[in-house]
């Protein structure tokens, strides 16, 4: 499971000209699910995400987590994060989980995130063509991969 975590001052998701989710200060997470992913990947990734110390403390040092600042979380499923570009110029998505595997894992990720944070989490629409707007704050962008724990 891969996540591109972006610290944002605000972010939103629109589908067919309808706003489906928006957040203020927090994280926009683009989530790529692969065939081999399961609950262990969700647990590891969520723990990392909510505890990333990338928000400024009173001294202007990145020392606070999403939980410390009561930040918002918006999670958008994005199979293209599983792209392989090793051969040629057309990405291969063979590692990306099929919808019947990915969608339940995405829903479980969202549910577990809400349980961990104790509040609602913003969501994209699985499988939909989405417009994602964000203001990357910093910019701060962190790449996490549950298969790369060391």
UniProtKB/TrEMBL annotation:
Localization terms from the record: Cytoplasm
Catalytic function, reaction form: a D-aminoacyl-tRNA + H2O = a tRNA + a D-alpha-amino acid + H(+); glycyl-tRNA(Ala) + H2O = tRNA(Ala) + glycine + H(+)
Top-rank lineage group of the source organism: Bacteria
Note on domains (UniProt): A Gly-cisPro motif from one monomer fits into the active site of the other monomer to allow specific chiral rejection of L-amino acids.
Cited HAMAP family: Deacylase_Dtd
Quaternary assembly: Homodimer.
Name by which UniProt lists this protein: D-aminoacyl-tRNA deacylase
Lineage of producing organism: Bacteria, Pseudomonadati, Bacteroidota, Flavobacteriia, Flavobacteriales
